[in-house]
Amino acid sequence: MEREITTETLDSVLEELSYPTLRPDAAAELRDVTIALGDESENLGAIISETGHDSYKTAEELEAELREYIPDATRL
User: Fold this and answer.
1) Which pTM value belongs to this model?
2) What H or E segment, with its residue span, contains residue 64?
3) Which of 1, 28, 29, 69 has its CA 20 to 30 Å from the CA of residue 50?
4) At residue 75, does pLDDT exceed 60?
């Protein structure tokens, strides 16, 4: 089921994953999530698939990595 989130609710969505997690697994798990970024939106799974790490030990680690890939990351 597709759902849309905001940068303010990103942390709670990332907490839903089991950690540690591999990048491809996290991307697949969140492929149905769209993150609203002002007037635009991006698929969260697609953003995660482009991040630099192969795996993430915690939700905080993944969120920190996403700050570099989400244009409106100052709100995280």
Assistant:
1) 0.87
2) helix 59-66
3) 1
4) no
